[in-house]
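At this stage, I put together a protein sequence along with its fold in token form, as given directly below:
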Amino acid sequence: MTKRTETAKPTGSATDFIPPRPTLTKLRSAVQGCRGCDLFKCGRAVFGEGPSRARVMVIGEQPGDVEERKGHTFVGPSGKVLDRAFDAAGIDRDDLYLTNAVKHFKWTPRGKRRIHERPRQDEILACRYWLDQEIEQLKPSAIVALGATSAATLLGSSVRVTRDRAKPFPSPLADLVTLTVHPSSILRSDPEDRAMARRQFVSDLRAIHRLIHGRQAT
């Protein structure tokens, strides 16, 4: 198990840790030294992954236990749900850049397990500079937010995932910004509702796929 580190104090912002003349490669290395919030004590940072020329960026909340251990995005249970949904919707994951609004896994111990804990607003704000840098480097034509934390980070607190899923929103961040549920919500749903939740998620991704291709064709 990755242990918490207690040897430094957070600065309250990631700005001091952004490298000069940043590139994705430089940012991926520099994020490991970030002390912008207390979450650095929880383990390694997990930066985004995908082709540097990806036109579509998918943004979740934070890495999970498996992601932190392996150092890669969406490789745990939620990632498996996401991959199956991508396949069903006809979306190639290799064409996407996947990242999270928060780069560290926030957890609380429960026996030998590390239980996911929702990041606080100040932690989300402290980490926002890394996300902004990823967006600046990629300049994606479309951004898809997964879940409430990511959607609120990008679009503000007035958005509601269940009400606004797969809707396009005007934003200076990209030509198209939209949202859907986080795949972890499907895993948390009641077993009798899970199949319907998966179908709705795939339906969202298909609709988003059509939106993206419709805009790219114009």
